[in-house]
Amino acid sequence: MAPRRNPFDYGGPVSGSQFAGRKAEVAGVVHRMSDHIGVVVTAPRRYGKSSLIRQACVELEQHRPEPAVVSVNLLQTGSLATAAGSLLHRLYQVPGGPWHRLKQVLPGFLRRVRIQPATSFDQNGHPVFTFPAGLAPADLSGVIDDVYEILDEIGARRPAVLFLDEFQAVTDLDAHLPQRLKALADEYRRVSLVLAGSKEHLMESLVISRGAPLYNMLERFNLGPIPEEDWVPFLLRRARAGGKPFADEAVARALWQVAGPVPFDVQRLAYESFNQAGDRIVEAVLRQATAEIIHHDAVDYARTFENLSAGQRRVLKALAGDVTSTPGSAEFAGAVGLADSTSVRKALKALTEAEIVVRRDQGIAVDDPFFAAWLRGTGGAS
Ligand SMILES: Nc1ncnc2c1ncn2[C@@H]1O[C@H](COP(=O)(O)OP(=O)(O)OP(=O)(O)O)[C@@H](O)[C@H]1O
Ligand SMILES: [Mg+2]
User: Fold this and answer.
1) In terms of residue numbers, what domain contains 282?
2) What is the pTM of this model?
3) Rounded CA gap, 285 and 255, in Å?
4) Among residues 129, 152, 318, 350, which is most buried (max CB within 10 A)?
């Protein structure tokens, strides 16, 4: 018998039946997109920023007239030349773009672009545009001006959205791009500029804080965890739809508690639990699934741990374990064998920058609950 298809997904952005909760945020983003108002979504890694925008686009598409959405992930593009090519690639595919009415569609489209890229075609027959790496940033950012201008023209009749994901990486492409985007957003008022990013301090300096280039331009949505009352019905519904229901609601709640606040971790544990289960997901399956995930990642965990200093390792183990004193206290410093709270602060800074630990409402915690479980177990025995 073919294995049942797993109804959970933790591979990348999710939408539709894979999307839980966040109703108010989705509605808020959909309204802003329809009204040509810019949006910035901030949250730590894997909280569901990209998913939120994807879901908002799905819901926006249910409205007539059909929206024009151009989206690019700045971390994936890696260079300004690639980003410019990707923007054109996505823009060209916008349904009902004015160039589609032209006799010579592609040359007509390229006439609107000031610098001519080399053109090839992907496996779907869509044109791929390539700019030589040596082009000056000013020339390449002119291509972004062109994309903005065309979207603005489309925006006269229907929602037009420019979505730049992983925006915290923008200055790696071009230090002047944030200022340029500010000028474009001021000039072209019929485009909703949508940004998403993690790395709070970078997003602060680009968008949020007074003096940031995009300060006060965009409506901010800062995502927290998805609450239990949204997760539990979602988990129950998906597992039932997949053909292996939870034994009862308490097991679904226990799964949510083990996985912690990050949506990615909840879906990952749900995915593995579904795989491990017989006919139903019972309490023991959660332990099996957790053990399986830890086993799968143990080599990475060990490597991460080995690359830390001895002090950082002890701080990390204390955070994962049962040391209850606050990390700022002298008691904590003593418990982890560091000279004083300044040394603890230094260790925490390094661990935070490496995104191993995070600051949450309840205090500082190990980000990955399975890494924390590894640290509590035999992992990192010292
Ligand atoms: N609303 C949601 N409902 C259900 N699962 C979600 C939701 N949001 C996120 N997830 C889960 O988290 C995973 C990561 O989501 P997503 O890629 O949107 O996060 P992100 O914040 O954009 O992450 P990154 O910081 O890596 O860009 C998804 O694959 C999914 O498993
Ligand atoms: Mg993302």
Assistant:
1) 227-306
2) 0.93
3) 10
4) 129
